[in-house]
């Protein structure tokens, strides 16, 4: 083949390759632009998801019922929902199997200020630390405080009232403790709501909580013997009566014991709170034995007076979770062990609690 024709043939082939390359780029351009758009859309969707989550967290930190409705209307999609603020039945799959019979225990006293909420929080946490699934129900409508003692006040978004009204599910109203996954809290109502719960509503809520597989349900009963007391004991089969070694508290506890028996609650146990051994030694305060004989109720535990209760309340940390347990924290743990059926001894309160240094000093001095 002549040299001139060979050059022309190569030029034709080169032009053909260039045309094919240009057509390939033209075909690939929409695909590339579509891929860029897809990546951009994915970024925008992820950004919207994160904004929705951050908005829900900000809503959780606000107080008031208006924000709860706002969160219900602007709830993020299930695919981008964090799901760390509610408790579900499958969250307890790693624990013991669901019980065949859930124990519903109401903590009551009749007189206010004797330590019902403190007892409920500490015994509930102690039982949860033993491996049982525990649900705490704050039945004090209008004056709830159990969330403060557990440090969960900023996470109360839904309550039992929203569950009854159909605004949320029970799993959304139950707040799981971050320290113990097998401990959950349910507030019946917020502070601004009045007595809107009936006896049937309380029984319905308790049955729903029982369906989630809890071993123990502790109900924090409000003070007094009015409609709040009647609703709190509606679904209970057992009761803990908290009293102090004062004649006024003992009279109210005796009255409450009679009302519990009239409502079919016969399994009743006694907790004597705020016991001072030094005053008992001076005959300025009735002993635990005297209180038990006056009421005729089996004794579950005697809790000594402790100034650390105020500190733990302000910190939102129960006494039994402190690194250095005080005598009252040990007494609450022992009471919880006896409540679940484990053998344990009562703390000897015949003499004031003394540290090791005090005992060494007494040994050296010879007192």
UniProtKB/TrEMBL annotation:
One annotated Gene Ontology cellular component of this protein: cytosol
Domain CobQ/CobB/MinD/ParA nucleotide binding per the UniProt entry, residue ranges: 105-319
Gene3D superfamilies documented for this protein: P-loop containing nucleotide triphosphate hydrolases (3.40.50.300)
Cross-referenced SUPFAM superfamilies: P-loop containing nucleoside triphosphate hydrolases
GO terms under biological process: negative regulation of cell division
Keyword set, alphabetical order: ATP-binding, Cell cycle, Cell division, Nucleotide-binding, Septation
Tagged with keyword Translocase: no
One Pfam family cited in the UniProt record for this chain: CbiA
GO molecular function list: ATP binding; ATP hydrolysis activity
Annotated PANTHER family: SEPTUM SITE-DETERMINING PROTEIN MIND HOMOLOG, CHLOROPLASTIC (PTHR43384:SF6), SEPTUM SITE-DETERMINING PROTEIN MIND HOMOLOG, CHLOROPLASTIC-RELATED (PTHR43384)
Protein name (database record): Putative septum site-determining protein MinD
Organism: Cymbomonas tetramitiformis
């Amino acid at each position: 083949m002549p040299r001139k024709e060979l050059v022309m043939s190569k030029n034709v082939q080169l032009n053909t390759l260039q045309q094919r390359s240009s057509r390939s780029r033209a075909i690939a351009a929409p695909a590339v632009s579509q891929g860029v758009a897809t990546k951009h859309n994915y970024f925008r969707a992820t950004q919207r998801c994160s904004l929705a989550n951050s908005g829900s967290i900000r809503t959780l930190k606000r107080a008031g019922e208006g924000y709860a409705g706002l969160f219900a209307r602007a709830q993020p999609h299930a695919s981008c929902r964090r799901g760390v603020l509610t408790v579900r039945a499958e969250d307890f799959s790693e624990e013991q199997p669901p019980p065949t019979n859930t124990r519903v225990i109401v903590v009551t006293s009749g007189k206010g200020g004797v330590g019902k909420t403190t007892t409920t929080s500490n015994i509930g946490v102690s039982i949860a630390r033993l491996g049982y699934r525990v649900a705490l129900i704050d039945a004090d409508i209008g004056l709830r405080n159990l969330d403060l003692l557990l440090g969960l006040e900023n996470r109360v978004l839904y309550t039992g009232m929203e569950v009854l009204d159909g605004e949320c599910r029970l799993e959304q109203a139950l707040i799981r403790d971050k320290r113990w996954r097998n401990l959950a809290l349910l507030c019946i109502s917020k502070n601004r709501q009045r007595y809107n719960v009936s006896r049937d509503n309380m029984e319905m809520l308790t049955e729903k909580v029982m369906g989630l597989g809890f071993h123990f349900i502790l109900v924090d009963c409000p003070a007094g013997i009015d409609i709040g007391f009647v609703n709190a004991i509606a679904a209970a089969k057992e009761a803990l009566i908290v009293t102090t070694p004062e004649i006024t508290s003992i009279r109210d506890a005796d009255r409450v014991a009679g009302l519990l028996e009239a409502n079919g609650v016969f399994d009743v146990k006694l907790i004597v709170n705020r016991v001072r051994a030094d005053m008992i030694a001076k005959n300025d305060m009735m002993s635990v034995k005297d209180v038990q004989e006056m009421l005729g109720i089996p004794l579950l535990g005697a809790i000594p007076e402790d100034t650390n209760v105020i500190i733990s309340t302000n910190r939102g940390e129960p006494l039994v979770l402190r690194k250095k347990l005080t005598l009252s924290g040990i007494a609450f743990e022992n009471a919880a062990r006896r409540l679940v059926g484990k053998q344990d001894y009562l703390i000897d309160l015949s003499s004031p609690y003394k540290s090791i240094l005090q005992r060494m000093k007494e040994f050296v001095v010879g007192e």
